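Weekly structure sync, notes
Attendees: PL (lead), two postdocs, one rotation student
Agenda item 3: pending single-chain targets
PL asked that the sequence for the first pending target be pasted directly into the notes so everyone works from the same version. It is reproduced below exactly as submitted, 98 residues in total.
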Amino acid sequence: MPITASRLWRATRRVAIVKRVYRLYVEQGLAVRRRRRKRLAHEQQIEPRLIRPNQEWAMDFIVDGRANGRMIPILSVVDAFTRECLVWRLTPAWAAVE
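Predicted structure, written out during the meeting:
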């Protein structure tokens, strides 16, 4: 048989066709190995568990817009254990320091 370009390519390629290999593994009843993603090794930090109220608070600024376009900044403080809002304060308008 003469050597053609397609036969030469088939004989020298090193990458397996995934679907063909999967089909052959299934026909033989073998387990198909799946590659797992490598993950960076790092220490896991255990977060402290909240066991009582007032152990941790969360503070956030919320900005709301009025119909006239003026923005109203609001400070909210929430207890992380009970999820109760402790403080809602309208803060003075943010003035630019000149």
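Discussion points:
- The longest strand covers residues 57-65.
- Residues 19 and 25 are 10 Å apart (CA to CA).
Action: rotation student to compare against the earlier draft before next sync.
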